[in-house]
Amino acid sequence: MQAWQIAGVGAASLAAAVLVVATQRWHGRWTSDFQDSGVQKHHSGNPPRIGFVPIFIGLLTALYFLAGGTAAGDAATYTLLLNIGLASSPIVLLGLVEDVTKKVSPRLRLFGALAAGAVAMFLFDNHITRANVPGLDQMLQWAPVALALTMLMVGGFTNAMNIVDGLNGLASGLAVLMLAATAFVASTVGDTVVLNLCAVLAMAILGFMALNFPRGLMFLGDGGAYFIGFALVQVWLLLLARNPEVSTWFVVALAFLPTMETIFSMYRRRIHRGRGGQFTQADRLHLHTLVYRRRMLGMLSRYPWMEKWMPNAVASVAVLALGAAPMLAACLAPTSTAWCVGVLLAAAAGYLLWFRHMVMFGRVFGRAPAARANTLAQA
User: Fold this and answer.
1) What are phi and psi of 32, to 5 degrees?
2) Regions of the chain where pLDDT drops below 70
3) I need a labelling partner for 309 at 20 to 30 A (CA). Which of 232, 302, 337, 338 fits?
4) How far apart are CA 330 and CA 323, in angstroms?
5) Whole-angstrom Cα distance, residue 48 to residue 18?
6) CA distances (Å), 77 to each of 74, 130, 231, in order?
7) How many Cα atoms are found within 13 Å in the side-chain-facing hemisphere of 151?
8) CA of 196: how far to CAs of 54, 77, 127, 145, 350, in Å?
9) Which residues touch 162 (CB under 8 Å, ≥6 apart)?
10) What's the pTM?
C-alpha cells in the first residue's frame, strides 16, 4: 500500500468517529456508556461505546484501496484482512450486542471468541505450530494439541484486551504499540504482507483513538476491544508461520500486559486467600484501576484547575509505559527465545511490585496501615 492510502484509512476512521459522536443524541439511549453502569467505570458523562464502528469503516476503506492495488503484497493483504474480518464476526457481533443491551454473559462472549478462532482456522489455516520449547514443539505437530493451544491463545487474548479497556486510550494505545512493534520486526524480515496488515489496523485504531484519548469522547466498547484482540492474535500467528526465525516468545512479550492482567486477575479472584470467587466477577483491583484511583484521582483536589478527564489520561500513559517496556526490549532480539523469556520475567516482576505498591498504599514490604486494612483485604 502507498503512504497516502494508509493515511486515508486513518482519515476515514476519524471521520466516522466524529460522525458517531456528533449524532449521539439520536442513538445515545442504546450506545452510551453510562457512568453508573458498573464498578469499573472511571468517567463522567455518557460517551458512546461503539468504537468498533470507526475501526470498521477504516478497514472497509483499506479493503477498497487494496482491491485495486498493484503493489507487492496488496492481493495477499486484501485476502487476509477480509478473512480476519469475516472470522471475527462471531465475537464482534456478541460484543456489539453487549454494548447495546449490556446483557450478554461473559461466558457466552468467551465462546464467541473461541468460535471466531475456529472460523479463522477454517478460512486460512491460521494456527500455532511451534512454541520454541523442547518437547512442546514436538507435541504441536499433533493437530489436536496445536488446535487446542491456538484456541486458548485466541480466546484468552481476545478477552484480555477487553479486560485492559478501562482507561482512555489504554487498550487502543497498547494495540497501536503492539502493531508498531510487530511491523518493525516484519520489516526487518522482509514480510510485506504482515507489515501492511499492521499499518492498516494501526491507522484504523488511531482514527478512533483521536476521540478516545485523552478526553474520552468515545469508548472502544466490547465489540471494538474484542475485534482488536482477535485481529492481533491472527497477525501474530501469521508472523510466526511466515517467519520461522522469529521466536514465539517475542509475541508473548508483546502481549505481556493484557495477558498478565488476565492471569493475575484470575488468580486474585479465584485462588488468593481462598476467596473462591468467579473468574469473570468485575472488581476495581486491576492494576490500571488502582493506578487511577490511588495515585491519579487525587490530582483533582490538589490541582483545582484540572479537568475531570485528566487523571484518567495520565493514569493511562503511566500504564502504557509499563506495557511498552517489554515490547521495546523484545524488539532488540526478536529471534532469541532466551532474551524474550528474560524480558517477560523482568516485566512480570515489575508488574507484581507495582501492584503490591498500589494495594499496600505506597509500601512494598511490611503491612499496610491498619486504618486501610479493610480496603487491602479486597485485593
Assistant:
1) -75, 150
2) 34-45, 269-284, 361-379
3) 232
4) 12
5) 11
6) 5, 23, 13
7) 14
8) 19, 7, 20, 30, 33
9) 95, 171, 222, 225, 226, 229
10) 0.90
